[in-house]
Design a protein that fits this description.
45 helices; 5 domains; five-stranded parallel β-sheet; mainly alpha; 61% helix; 842 residues; Rossmann fold
Length: 842
C-alpha cells in the first residue's frame, strides 16, 4: 500500500467481499505517517450533494489535525454543494493545490455509491486532483469512474484479490496464532478456499481470545465450509434483485459460457449479466478454452454456497436448473451431464448420456472415474444393462477379468428391457471385449443381419484385446485430442510388447502435428521433441517415421519467427515424409513461407523448384491446388512481383478455402491494394475455426484494413485481439512480417490502452532493432541495451515491468534511463522520447 500510494496519485483496491479490504486500509492508515482522511460510503451516498459533503468533511477532519500553511483555505470551504456544482468542485481543487503537505483520502465501500459516482466529486478527484492529494478507492469490482486513462497514462496503483488472498504460508501462520500445531498443513485449506480470507477464517474457526487457546478446526479442513449465510447477507442481498437471482441460477455450474448462462437464466440477457458479474467482482473469472470461446469460472466455494442457498430457498427450482444444465451438456461433456443430471434427480438422463458417450468419458477421464460414475447411479439404473456393460469394460481395463465376466452375465440377463437402439449400443460395447483368436488376428465374418461386422464367436468371454485397445488409442490421436488416456490404453495392451513402443512414439509424433495444426505450438513442440528423443533409442525404423514430429517443430518455428531452425526441421520432414496429405504438402508450403520470410534467393529458388516438382507428381488431396496457388503467389511477391502474385490468386476469389490459404490470401490482397476483396476474405474465415496463429495474422490484416478505412476503434480492437491471441504461444511472425506498417500503430495502441504491455513493447523494441536506416549518428551514442530500454520506454511500462521483460534488475533499468536522459539532454521520459523521435532514433 505504501509503495502504491507513493508512486501513484490514485490507488484502487478492488476485490470481492471477504478479502479484507477495509482491514488492510485501516491498518495501513494507522501505521503510516501521512495525514489520512477516511470516508466510508453507504447506500445513501448516491446523491452528489451528500457525497461532496462527506468528501470535504473527511479532508477537513484530516487537515485540521496539523496546522500547516495552506490548510486554512481548505478549512474555510463550505461542505455544502452549490447549485453550480462545477463552482464547488473548482473551489475544492484550488484549495487542495495550496497544500504544502500531502493528504491521503481513503474512500471505502465505493461500490455502494452506484453508477452516478463518475459524475460527482469522486470522479472529479480521480481525473483532476492535484499531486498533494493521494486518493485511495476501495470496493468490489470495477468502479464506475473512468480509470483507463490513468492506467495507461500516468499510472494507477492496483491491489486486487490475488494480492489480498492468503498464501499457504500465511494460512499456516494464522493457524499457529489460533493455537494449532506449528506443523499445521495449510495445503488442504488453501486448496479448498483459494486463499479467500473470510473462508480461511471459517475453516480455522474464530480467532481465539488467548494465544494458547486452540482454534475450532481439526488438522484437516471440512469437506465443505458453510458460508451460505455470509454470502446471502454480504453478497446477494447487496445486489439488485434481478442480478442476485441470476447469480443463484448461473452458479448451478462452476464453469459456464454465454449460451449456458442464457439457458439457466431463461432470458436472452444472460451473457450481459455474466459481464456484469465480472465487472462487479462477484467471484468469477474469464477464461479461454481451445477454439477461442470465452468461458467463465466461478470461485468453487462461492458457487457451492450459492447452490446451497438456492436449495434451501427453492429446492424444486434448484433441481430443474441442474436438469437444464444436464441437457446442455448432453452431447458435449458426458461427465458434467451425468453430474448435473444426478443432482437434478434425473438418473434416466444420466444413463442415456453414459450409454451414448461412455467411451468419450473413458478416454478423457479414465476407467476409475467412469466406474465411480456408474456405481453412483441410483436404483434401478445401477442395474441397467448398458451401465453394467460399461462397468464390465472398466473391470477389464483394471485387469479384473472375474468381476468383468460376472458383470457381463448380469448385463446379458437384463437385455430384454432394451429397445432396438439401446441394444445396438449395448452390442457395440460388448464387441470391445472380444479378443483375437490364438493366432493374434481377429477373424472377421460377413456382416450380421443388421449390417454390423462380427468377430469370431469363439472369442466371447475373453479379456480385452490389444488390437481393440490400440484402435481406441489411435482414434484418440487421430481425432486430435490430448493423448494421455490413449497412452494408458497402449500400455494396457497385452501380447505385443515388442511393437508397442514404436507404435506409441509414432502416435505421439502424429499428435504433435495435430497440435501444431490446431494452434497449440508449445504443446506441439514439446511433444515432438519428446517423440524424437524416444525414437532415437528405438533404432532407424522409428526415426524414419518421425516426419510428423519434424513438421510440427517446423510449423511452430515459423510462427514463432525462429526461421533458421524452422527451415532445418522442415527439410527433415520433407526428406522423411509421405507425399500424401498432410505431411508432404504442408512441408512444402511451410518451406516456401520460411524462405519467403528470410528472403534468401538461393533457398527461395530451391523451394520454388520443390513446389513445382511436388505438384507435377499429382499426389495430393483436393485442397492442394489452393495451397499450390497461394505458395506460387508468395514466391512471386517475395521476388518483388506483387502484380503477378495478384494475377495468380485471382482464381481463388474472395476466400472460402483452407484457413491457412485464406489468411495468406487476405494479407496479399490487402498489400496489393484490394481492400474490399481482402475484407470479404477475412469475413469468409470469421465463422470457421481460427487457431491462435491464424487468428493473430488475420486480426492484424483486419487492423490494417480498418486503418485504411479510418476506423480507429476497430484498429485497436483488432490489435488487442491479435496480441491477446499471440502472447500465450509467442506467435511473432505476423508482427515481424508487417513490421513497418505496425510500428506507429503499436505505439498508438500502447497509449490507447492494452492488457499486454510487455508483449507490445517487445515488438516495438524489435522494430527499432530492425531498421538500420534510422540509425543516425546520435542513435549510435546509445549502447545496445540503452536502445532496447528506450524502445520499451515508449510504452507505459514501469521500470519494474521493463526490468522483468528484459530479465535485469530495476536498478539496472534506472541506470540505463539516467544514461539515456544524459545523452539526449532530456529531463524525463516524455522529453527523452520527444528528443529521440526528433533525431530519428525511434
Amino acid at each position: 500500500m505504501t509503495a502504491a500510494a507513493d508512486a501513484h496519485r490514485l490507488t484502487l483496491v478492488a476485490a470481492p467481499a471477504g478479502y479484507g479490504k477495509s482491514t488492510l486500509l485501516g491498518d495501513w492508515v494507522r501505521k503510516n505517517d501521512l495525514q489520512c482522511a477516511w470516508l466510508s460510503l453507504d447506500r445513501f451516498d448516491t446523491q452528489p450533494a451528500r457525497l461532496f459533503h462527506g468528501v470535504v468533511g473527511a479532508i477537513q477532519a484530516a487537515a485540521g489535525q496539523v496546522s500547516l500553511p495552506g490548510n486554512g483555505v481548505l478549512m474555510a470551504l463550505d461542505q455544502g454543494l452549490a447549485p453550480d456544482r462545477a463552482a464547488s468542485y473548482d473551489l475544492l481543487l484550488t484549495a487542495l493545490e495550496q497544500l504544502t503537505e500531502p493528504i491521503v483520502l481513503v474512500i471505502d465501500d465505493l461500490h455502494l455509491a452506484g453508477p452516478e459516482l463518475a459524475n460527482g466529486i469522486v470522479g472529479v478527484l480521480a481525473a483532476s486532483s492535484p499531486p498533494a492529494l493521494r486518493l485511495i478507492l476501495s470496493g468490489r469490482g470495477h468502479p464506475s469512474i473512468q480509470l483507463e486513462r490513468l492506467r495507461y497514462g500516468e499510472g494507477l496503483g492496483e491491489i486486487g484479490a490475488a494480492e489480498l488472498a492468503f498464501t499457504r504460508g500465511e494460512i499456516a501462520q494464522l493457524a499457529t496464532l489460533l493455537g494449532h500445531e506449528a506443523d499445521f498443513d495449510a495445503g488442504p485449506l488453501w486448496q479448498l478456499t483459494g486463499g479467500w480470507p473470510v473462508a480461511v477464517h471459517a475453516g480455522l474457526g474464530p480467532p481465539s481470545q488467548g494465544g494458547n487457546v486452540p482454534g475450532v478446526m481439526a488438522d484437516e479442513p471440512p469437506a465443505q465450509l458453510s458460508l451460505a449465510d455470509y454470502i446471502a447477507e454480504e453478497v446477494l442481498d447487496q445486489l439488485d434483485p434481478s442480478l442476485a437471482d441470476f447469480v443463484l441460477r448461473a452458479t448451478t455450474c462452476d464453469w459456464l459460457g454465454r449460451r449456458l448462462a442464457v439457458e439457466l437464466h431463461g432470458r436472452p440477457d444472460g451473457g450481459m449479466l455474466l459481464e456484469a458479474c465480472l465487472r462487479d467482482g462477484l467471484f468469477i473469472e474469464e477464461h479461454e478454452f481451445r477454439g477461442g470461446e470465452s468461458t467463465y469460472r466461478w470461485h468453487t466455494l462461492f458457487a457451492a454456497q450459492c447452490r446451497r442457498i438456492l436449495e434451501r430457498r427453492d429446492p424444486l427450482r434448484a433441481e430443474r436448473l441442474h436438469r437444464v444444465a444436464a441437457r446442455y451438456f448432453q452431447d458435449s461433456d458426458v461427465c458434467e451431464c451425468v453430474t448435473q443430471a444426478l443432482q437434478g434427480n434425473a438418473p434416466r438422463q444420466a444413463a442415456a448420456s453414459l450409454g451414448e458417450h461412455w467411451l468419450q468419458f473413458l478416454l478423457c477421464n479414465g476407467a476409475h472415474a467412469l466406474e465411480q460414475v456408474c456405481r453412483n447411479m441410483p436404483p434401478p439404473w445401477n442395474e441397467d444393462p448398458e451401465i453394467l456393460m460399461v462397468l464390465s469394460v472398466c473391470r477389464v481395463l483394471d485387469s479384473d477379468d472375474g468381476a468383468a465376466s460376472e458383470l457381463t452375465e448380469r448385463a446379458l440377463s437384463r437385455t430384454s428391457v432394451l429397445d432396438d437402439k439401446r441394444r445396438r449400443k449395448f452390442d457395440k460395447c460388448r464387441d470391445l471385449l472380444q479378443p483375437p483368436p490364438a493366432g493374434g488376428r481377429p477373424d472377421v465374418h460377413p456382416p450380421a443381419a443388421d449390417g454390423r461386422p462380427r468377430v469370431d464367436e469363439a472369442a466371447e468371454g475373453h479379456p480385452a484385446t490389444s488390437s481393440g485397445l490400440f484402435l481406441l488409442a489411435q482414434a484418440e490421436f487421430r481425432m486430435h485430442r490430448i493423448g494421455d488416456q490413449a497412452t494408458v490404453l497402449l500400455q494396457l495392451a497385452e501380447g505385443m510388447a515388442n511393437q508397442w513402443a514404436v507404435l506409441e512414439v509414432c502416435s505421439m509424433a502424429d499428435l504433435a502435428l495435430a497440435f501444431a495444426v490446431g494452434g497449440d505450438l508449445q504443446t506441439a513442440d514439446d511433444m515432438a521433441t519428446q517423440a524424437l528423443e524416444r525414437a532415437d533409442g528405438l533404432g532407424p525404423s522409428a526415426q524414419d517415421q518421425m516426419a510428423a514430429a519434424w513438421l510440427a517443430r517446423g510449423i511452430a518455428g515459423y510462427w514463432k519467427d525462429e526461421l533458421n531452425s524452422a527451415r532445418a526441421h522442415l527439410a527433415k520432414a520433407q526428406r522423411l515424409g509421405s507425399k500424401l496429405f498432410p505431411i508432404g504438402p504442408l512441408s512444402i508450403v511451410y518451406k516456401v513461407l520460411v524462405d519467403c520470410a528470410t528472403g534468401d534467393q538461393t533457398h527461395l529458388a530451391e523451394s520454388s523448384a520443390a513446389l513445382e516438382a511436388f505438384h507435377d507428381q499429382g499426389l495430393y488431396g483436393v485442397s492442394w491446388a489452393d495451397f499450390h496457388t497461394i505458395a506460387r503467389a508468395k514466391i512471386a511477391e517475395a521476388n518483388g512481383d506483387l502484380d503477378g502474385a495478384l494475377t495468380m490468386v485471382a482464381p481463388l476469389g474472395a476466400g472460402g478455402h483452407a484457413p491457412l490459404v485464406d489468411v495468406l490470401l487476405a494479407e496479399l490482397l490487402r498489400r496489393g491494394g484490394e481492400p474490399g476483396v481482402a475484407e470479404l476474405c477475412a469475413k469468409a474465415l470469421t465463422d470457421r475455426h481460427r487457431n491462435r496463429y491464424l487468428d493473430t495474422s488475420m486480426s492484424l490484416t483486419e487492423a490494417l484494413l480498418a486503418q485504411g478505412a479510418g476506423d480507429e476503434a476497430q484498429v485497436h480492437e483488432r490489435i488487442e485481439h491479435a496480441v491477446h491471441r499471440a502472447e500465450p504461444q509467442s506467435v511473432l511472425r505476423p508482427f515481424t512480417e508487417r513490421r513497418d506498417e505496425l510500428a506507429d500503430l503499436l505505439i498508438r495502441h500502447a497509449v490507447w490502452g492494452t492488457s499486454h504491455e510487455s508483449f507490445i513493447a517487445a515488438r516495438m523494441a524489435r522494430h527499432a532493432e530492425g531498421q538500420p536506416h534510422l540509425r543516425t549518428r546520435s542513435y549510435w551514442t546509445l549502447t545496445d541495451r540503452e536502445r532496447e530500454v528506450l524502445a520499451y520506454m515508449r510504452s507505459v511500462m514501469t521500470a519494474a515491468e521493463i526490468a522483468e521483460a528484459l530479465y535485469i534488475s530495476v536498478n539496472t533499468v534506472k541506470t540505463h534511463e539516467r544514461s539515456i536522459y544524459r545523452k539526449l539532454g532530456a529531463a524525463g521520459r516524455r522529453d527523452a522520447l520527444k528528443t529521440a523521435a526528433e533525431r530519428g532514433i525511434v
